[in-house]
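To the team - adenosine monophosphate complex, inputs and output below.
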Amino acid sequence: MEVVKTIPELRTLRQKLSGTVGFVPTMGHLHEGHLALVKQASMENSAVIVSIYVNPTQFSLSEDFADYPRDLNRDLELLRREAVDIIFVPSDDEMYPPGFSSWVEVEEVTERLEGASRPRHFRGVATIVTKLLNIVRPSRAYFGQKDAQQVAVVKRIVADLNMGVEIVVVPTVRESDGLAMSSRNIYLSSRERQAATILFQSLMLARQLWQDGEKNTDKIQQQMTSLIQKEPLAQIDYISIADAETLEELKSIDRPALAVLAVRIGKTRLIDNMPLE
Ligand code: AMP
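Output:
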């Protein structure tokens, strides 16, 4: 396992790899969700490259870039137990050198949900993912279903810009009580950690209603809202029942759909989703 910090070093090592290369981009502070992507990448490819980079351009000034948890030694320890060939840990100067001024802007799919709540977030995501895919040139890149809109954005870029990489989506890994694993869960106090299970409970409620035959998305959203409002520490940012591919809001569940939501638990903003298909 080689750890490299610069693009030329990464390219030199990448050229020596033969067969298919699976790539897992992360912001570090790794948990079982990240490791599920790494494990799947190593099962499906001859070699695996993981990047660890907290990308400043996807955070707004009021967000948690400075506080985002970072522990490189722990991350490297966890990755040493997996079949990883190269870990790319670039600096901000390596990724955004002086004079940097090109951005990847994706229309439509970025305008709702996370895009509406976090202006410019997806411009940062689209730009860094494009850069990393250009640097690593993987056969396949692995992304978590937990960030469903990010998956839709990345698929759009790869199709629109003919990037010739297969995007593989890995199901959300959850704690035993259903909370989706996230680096941000570390911000939760023990009372907030309990309260955070309300996201999964409301998604299970949506799935139950849909399985019982409810197709009207307003009715499902209303019931999810009432359930979440019973938790005093929770504040809803958005709840939507959306087309599973385009994330467009649906009035009726007449195609593969996703229940998606963002909820603040205290000061921590959590997102999650559940396929209804
Ligand atoms: P992050 O470090 O949060 O940028 O996440 C890196 C990758 O891991 C993204 O593709 C995420 O969607 C994915 N990921 C994060 N949490 C989970 C989870 N609980 N289950 C599956 N994938 C996840």
